[in-house]
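Fold this sequence, please.
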Amino acid sequence: MAMTWGVAAVLPIPVLVATNPATSADISCLYLGLAGAWLLTEFHRSIGLPESPEAWRARTLATTIAVVTNVALFVACGVAAGVQTRFPFPLMAVLSAVPAMGIIPWMLRRVRQHYAPIILGAALVLGAKLAACVVARMVYGPDYIERGYVAADWRTAKLMISLFWSFSTLLALGLWLADFSACKRTSRSADK
């Protein structure tokens, strides 16, 4: 898994450091989230799904260490490259990796395929983004796009961006807990 971990760590960095520092943060954070999701699917594919709560905790700790290390490297490279964002860049990087940590393990348990959980997880995160846009539309009215309330600019779209990160983080946390509960049920039914 060391090679896979290394590839997942390096994958989002070229977009971050080789493009315009003023505009590269959003797309490189997307790559960071996708790289984290891919790393988790590869980790579970090579070792299998945990079947006991103890194995789940150990697996979650190992994958969390891997993803947090990748995020730390990503943030260090972004700061060194002078990435400019109106939203705190380290927080953006962390929040980009969180959905992978919660959604992918749960999806792997449900779908039981290797790469479909990445696509389905991305669709759930997109749904969180669209839900945030719907709330912005309801709050700001029909001209919310022209007024910049769903732009990638933190100064004008604070509500939409805050709701997007909140929805995707809460979704990830909920599915993370659901995965743990499913693992406990599997363990109990195996013990009977």
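Residues 2-191 form one domain. The chain has one domain: 2-191.
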